[in-house]
Amino acid sequence: MTVGGAGDDVRAGVDLSAAEVVDSLHHTDGCSSSIVSALDRVDSTMAGFLLFLGDQPNVPVDAVDALLAAASTGAEIAVVDYRDGTGHPFWLSRSMFEALRGLHGDKAVWKLLESGDFTAAHVPIDDDVPLDVDTWEDYERLLASD
Predict the structure, then answer these.
(1) Cα-based angle 81, 55, 144 (whole degrees, multiple of 5)
(2) In terms of residue numbers, what domain contains 87?
(3) What band does 47 get if pLDDT is binned at 50, 70 and 90?
(4) Using CA atoms, how far apart are residues 133 and 115, in angstroms rounded to an integer?
(5) Backbone dihedral angles phi then psi of residue 115, each to the nearest 5 degrees
(6) pLDDT score for 66
(7) In a domain, 30, yes or no
(8) Nearest 5°: phi and psi at 93?
(9) Domain for residue 129, yes or no?
């Protein structure tokens, strides 16, 4: 797990004892800094990793299963096609690590997906894109949906 500017608050409010936490030292440079910060911490025996957004709870288990299945087919990058749009999480294979190291800013992983330079898979899921909780109103909607 990668944390940015609110890392101390996250550590104080969330039980992270089962996670390895990496500080994103350049978190003001956008989401890609979190990825770059964590790449060297991915176990060398792993074929890649799943990229989740910390502010997007309730990712369906089916999405995770479908991404892992896509990974086993050799896809370098995979993304979920929900009923109402394409979204996170992403599968990113080890063969993508050098490209990932060069990322800057927000939405950079999307640019890699859209580049056509990598073997990509879109996995369909019969569910809606999980709510991205960016505002207090989003948080209230999330609570109301449970």
Answers:
(1) 90
(2) 44-145
(3) very high
(4) 28
(5) -65, -25
(6) 94
(7) no
(8) -80, 160
(9) yes
